[in-house]
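Subject line: Sequence and fold of a protein, written as structure tokens
Area: Proteins and the way their chains fold up in space.
Start of record: The labelled sequence and token lines come straight after this line.
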Amino acid sequence: MAEPRGLAGTSVVVIGGAGFIGSHLVDRIVDEGPARLTVVDNLFLGREEYLSAARRRFADLRFVHHDATDLEAMDAILRDAAADVVFNLAVVPLPASLERPRWSVEQNLRLALVPCELQRLGRFRTLIHFSSSEAYGSAAYVPMDEAHPAVPSTPYAASKLAGDQVVLSYWHTFGTDAAIIRPFNNFGPRQNAGSYAGIIPIVVDRATRGEPIEIFGDGEQTRDFVFVRDTADAAIGVHASPATRGRVVNVASGREVSVNELVALMLDLLGSDARVEHVAPRPGDVRRHLASIDLARELIGYEPRTSLRDGMAETIAWYLGR
């Protein structure tokens, strides 16, 4: 078996590294002691300020404001970085695909294809690609392992699944050194609170304004929420383990929480008595998600370390601090 690989002394490029998960991954990569670290982000969702903590510890961190769907530009960026490892987190999010489906699908597919093609051309050694649990669709059985049927229910989910298949096809055909992380619902500080915000920042915002909390449908739909730093740790582990190559690896908490339970926890932590209102279901909303993390345990020794309550308390404190 191939020896584990670390990031010490390597040149690492993080595409989408100024975003929510990406910026936490950048923080975690700094811990590994890379020789060079480059972040590429078009700031569609990300913010350069999210890299401030990493910059304080890695003064030579380079930020490139660019669209990662541009093959020629990405070629130049990777050549200039003398890249060894690429973590690809660039994405157009699910809500955008409900408003601009064709554009979202085209963008997400190209965001997966460009690094695959540049890896095939020898521009870097290893690709760690970020997928989404939405690729599975609603649970046919639980816990959902990596063999679970993929029945995407939104254009976003379909585009993420298509991107995964592109990565795997390049691995099969060209022998690229690639692995896929399939995270379930991440939460934590820096989660986008603007356009296309998720439920957590929306609840914090509405509760602090004294506005009613809107829940799509009956609120009994479930999710598997994983704290963002646990996902960043898992990404480092996936890179280090040769056994992950050519595979999809779930990253989650292995715990199931309904949206109603999540909102109740948040209101409790906020000390809020905000009214909860149920509105029409969101198109394509998955009904149930609960991950199996057995493969991640086997391949990288993964264990989620942050409880939902503790992680949520930290997340809420971050939003309130802003």
Q: What stands out?
A: The chain has eleven helices and 13 strands. The radius of gyration is 19 Å.
